[in-house]
Amino acid sequence: MKSFRKLTIAIVAFITFAGVASATATKKDIVDTAVAAGSFNTLVTAVKAAGLVDVLKSKGPFTVFAPTDAAFAKLPKGTLASLLKPENKAKLKAILTYHVLSGKVMAGDIKGKALTAKTVQGSTVAVDGKYGVKVNDAKVTAADIAATNGVIHVIDTVILPPSK
Question: What is the pTM of this model?
Fold first, then answer.
């Protein structure tokens, strides 16, 4: 009887801990989730420079295709430094909002499909879920990272909006 009681207490403790851990994991908005991940330092710096922090902390929901620091490193030398200058804020904002969809789109929503989606920037991106998930030429390397105001999909390349 004692071992059954200990097992019951252990199961209840585990379930309680698991519930708290999962609830805690989703109590961060998109910006805080990106900061906590540690692999989006460049993206967070760019979001701050573009004045988009408050937007990405708002209710949403949003779907963010988040380039990693390594993705930003693929840009031609000097591109990022140029974009972070105050006089290029509008261009930086356009690039960053091209990575954001209004609404919450999970990877399962597009599995096996190819479609276009309108970005917050106003242009469309090609989303291909037939063989993994790609957004334009960027490969989604991690999907469905939940945030309180949407979802993050990690991409390996910075995608650029079409020239207007």
Answer: 0.82
